[in-house]
Amino acid sequence: MKPVLTLVACLAIGACTTSETSRRASPDIALPPMKTFSSVAVRAPAKSNARIARDFLDLAFTLENGAKMPRFTRFEGPITVRVTGPAPASLSPDLDRLLARLRREASIPISRVAADRDASITIAPVPRSQIQSAAPSAACFVRPNVSSWDEYRARRNDPGTYWNRLTDRSRMTVFLPRDVSPQEVRDCLHEEIAQALGPVNDIYRLSDSIFNDDNFHTVLTGFDMLILRAYYDPALQNGMSEAQVT
C-alpha cells in the first residue's frame, strides 16, 4: 500500500498514534445574531481511503490558481497563535473553540500566546475595505512569512512570501475583516487557520470539506480534521515531493 494511503487508512480508523490562499467573499446579506455551541458534531468522512489519499495530494500539492507546490510544507513543533490590534468581541471565544478542536480532533499542538509575543500564526483583523483593496474577491486570506498588514504591503511582490517558494512553515498571518458579522469572522478563522496549517488548495468536488470555494461548509468538518491530522503525522516531513508522499 502506498505511504499516503497507508497513513490515511490508519488515521481513518483511529489506529495511529503519535499566491495567498483566501476565502471567497459572500454576498452582503442581513444575518441574525450567530448562535454559539459548546461542541461541534463531527461525522467521519464517507468516502474510500484511496479517494481521501487522492484528495490529500491535490490539497497539499496544488495551489488555488492551479500552480504546483514543489514540496510538502508544514509547521514543526508546537504552534502558537496570537491576535493583534482591535478585534471583534466574538473572535477570541471562537478562536479558543477552534484551537481546542484542532488539539482534540487533529492532534495538532497549537495554543494561544499574548499579542506582544512572536507567534507561528498571527491573526490580524483589519477593516474590510483594506482586504477588498488587496484582494477584491476575497473575504479574508493568509500569507506566508509576514507578521502584519504593513509587512504584507511592503513584501507583497517578494518571492519569499510566495507559497510555492516555501521549504517549511514558520510564520503565517491571517488577514480577516473586523467590521463584519460574527459568523463571517468565525468562517474566516476556520478556513484561513486551516490553510495556514495545511491545505493550500480549494477543490470544488469536495462536498464534505471547508476547502471548497462554494462555501457550503463554514466550519471544519470531519474530513478536514482527518486531512490536518495526516499533515502532522510523523511519517511526513518538510521538503518531501509529491512522489515521496505518494
Short summary of the structure?
The protein is built from eight helices and six strands, in the order H-E-H-E-H-E-E-H-E-H-E-H-H-H.
Describe this structure in words.
It is a single chain. By secondary structure, this protein is α/β, with parallel strands linked by helices. It has one domain: Collagenase (Catalytic Domain), CATH 3.40.390. The protein contains 8 helices and 6 strands. The chain has helices spanning 3-12, 49-61, 91-106, 128-134, 149-154, 182-197, 222-231, 242-245; strands at 21-24, 79-83, 110-112, 121-126, 138-144, 172-177. The chain has a 6-stranded mixed sheet, sandwiched between helices. Helix 3 links the parallel strand 2 and strand 3 (110-112). It is globular and about 45 Å long. The N and C termini lie close together (10 Å). The model is unreliable at 26-39 (pLDDT under 50).
What labels describe this entry?
six-stranded mixed beta sheet, Collagenase (Catalytic Domain), alpha/beta, 246 residues
The SSE order reads: HEHEHEEHEHEHHH
Separation of termini? 10 Å
Question: Which architecture would the CATH scheme give at its second level?
Answer: 3-Layer(aba) Sandwich
**Strand order within the widest beta sheet:** 1-5-6-4-2-3
CATH topology: Collagenase (Catalytic Domain)
CATH H level: which superfamily?
Answer: Collagenase (Catalytic Domain)
Radius of gyration: 17 Å
Which parts are unreliable, with pLDDT below 50 for 5 consecutive residues or more? Answer: 26-39
Q: Can you tell me the CATH class?
A: Alpha Beta
Biggest sheet architecture: 6 strands, mixed
Let me know the number of strands. 6
Work out the oligomeric state of the chains in this entry.
Answer: single chain
The residue-averaged pLDDT reads 85
